[in-house]
Amino acid sequence: MEGLVRATHSMQAASRDNETVGSYQVERYTARQARNKAVKIALGTLLVAVASIILPGIHFVSVPLGVLASPFIGAYYYRSLNGAPKSMTGDFVCPDCHAANQVSAPRVSAYYETRCVQCQHEIRLTPL
Q: Measured between alpha carbons, how far apart are the two ends of the chain, in Å?
C-alpha cells in the first residue's frame, strides 16, 4: 500500500469567549485508494445494470445505459477522490478548563464542533 498522505496544520479552538490553538492532521486519498474506490463504484454500477435485466420493459433502457455509464462514473469518482481529504485527527486544549482533548472525524469540513471531554462545553474548531 502506498504511504498515507498527511499534512499537519494549526487550528483554533473557541469556546464562548476563550480561544486556544491546537493542531490537526488531514489524511488524503492516495491515487491507489481513489482508483480502488472508483473501480468498486464502476463495477457496482455495472452489476446493477446487469441485475436490472429481470425488470420487464425497463431493462431495454437500464442495461445499456448502465453498461455505457459505468466507466464514466468510475472516472468521475477517481478524479473527485484523488487527493481529496479522507479523515481528520486533531489535538487541542480546552479554552475553558485546559483539559487535553483529541478529535477524529471521518469527513473533513471547514470547521468541526465538539464538546470538551472534561467540562462538556461546546468547542468550535476552525483551521488557521
A: 31
